[in-house]
C-alpha cells in the first residue's frame, strides 16, 4: 500500500476541515473500520473476518464486546455532535460503541442493530443492556417487556427480541427513515471505515451526492465510487492524538447532483433505553481506550458473548436505496 506523505495528508485534512466549515448539515456514516482499534476486527481488512475466512483461519479478537471501549474516533464524533457540527450519525456497526461513548440515540441510526439492545415485539420499547443480549437474527431473548401505560395497569409483558439483523431481514423502519431523511437534508456526508458495498446501507451516503451535496469516503480499501480527492493513511491520523497503527484508510471526496424519491416508512415506536426484569440495568458508558471496529450481522463467526462477529446482511430498503446512486457497487 502507498501512504500519503505528512505534508500531503495535512493538505487533505485542511481541505476536509474547510468542507466541514462550509457545510450546514453534516452527516457521518460509520462501518467496521472505525472499531478495529477497539480490538474488534473488520471484514475486508488484512485481519478482517472475511479475509481470515478465505485463508481458512478464525478472526482474532483483542477483546470481548463487553470489554471493548469507544476509540478516539468514537469520541471525536461525539465531540462534533456536541458542538453542533455533526447533525446525525448513521452506523452499520452492531458493537454498541457509539451508545457507550454517550452519543445521543435520537441522533443515531443503528441500521444493523445493536448487540446490547433488545426490543419488545408488542410495543416497540427498547432496552440497553450491560452485556450482549445472547441471540441474533431478531430472535426472542426469553425476557418480557415491563412497560406500563399508566399506574396500576398491567405491564405490557410483550416478548423481547434482539435487534441484530440476519441476511434476509429488512432494515428497521425507524432507523432507515431517520437515516434517509438525514442524508436528504445533508450537504456533506462523511463515511468512515465502510466500503459501501452492503445495500441499502451503502447507498444512503450516495443520496447526499445525488442531491448535489459532497461525499467524503475514508476507508482502508478504495471504493468503486468516483472521487475528486483520495488519500491513503490511518484514520487515527485524521483524528489526531496518536500514530497510525493500522495500514491505512482510503479517502475520497466526491460531488454530483441528482434527485431521489424515497417512500415514507413507518416509525417503529419507542426506542428509549430502559431496564426490564431479568437482565442487567440500562447503561451508557463514558469512553476511553483505543477503538475502531464494526461487526455486521447475519451468520455468527462465533458466539456473541465470546466476541464472535456476525457477518453483514443484504438489507431491503427504500426504492432509492435498492437502486443505489450512480457508481454504486
Write the layout of secondary structure elements.
Elements: H1 6-21, E1 26-30, H2 49-54, H3 72-82, E2 86-91, H4 97-100, E3 108-110, E4 117-120, E5 126-128, E6 140-144, E7 159-162, H5 173-185, E8 188-192, H6 204-210, E9 214-219, E10 229-233, H7 235-239, E11 249-254, H8 319-323
Parallel strand pairs: 1-2, 1-8, 2-3, 8-9
Antiparallel strand pairs: 4-5, 4-7, 6-7, 9-11, 10-11
Helix pairs in contact: 5-6
Organism: Taeniopygia guttata
Binding site for Zn(2+): 120, 123, 145, 156
Keywords: Metal-binding, NAD, Transferase, Zinc
What labels describe this entry?
329 residues, alpha/beta, Rossmann fold, seven-stranded mixed beta sheet, 16% strand, disordered C terminus, NAD+ binding
Describe the structure.
The chain has 329 residues and is α/β, with parallel strands linked by helices. It has one domain (6-113, 166-199, 214-262, 281-323): TPP-binding domain (Rossmann fold), CATH 3.40.50. Helices cover 20% and strands 16% of the residues. It is built from eight helices and eleven strands. The strands form two sheets. A seven-stranded mixed sheet has the order 3-2-1-8-9-11-10, with helices on both faces. Strands 5-4-7-6 form a four-stranded antiparallel sheet, with no helix packed on it. α5 (173-185) packs parallel to α6. It is globular and about 65 Å long. It starts with 5 loop residues before the first helix and ends in a 6-residue tail after the last helix. It catalyses: N(6)-acetyl-L-lysyl-[protein] + NAD(+) + H2O = 2''-O-acetyl-ADP-D-ribose + nicotinamide + L-lysyl-[protein]. It comes from Taeniopygia guttata (Zebra finch). Pfam families: SIR2 (PF02146). Belongs to the sirtuin family. Class IV subfamily.
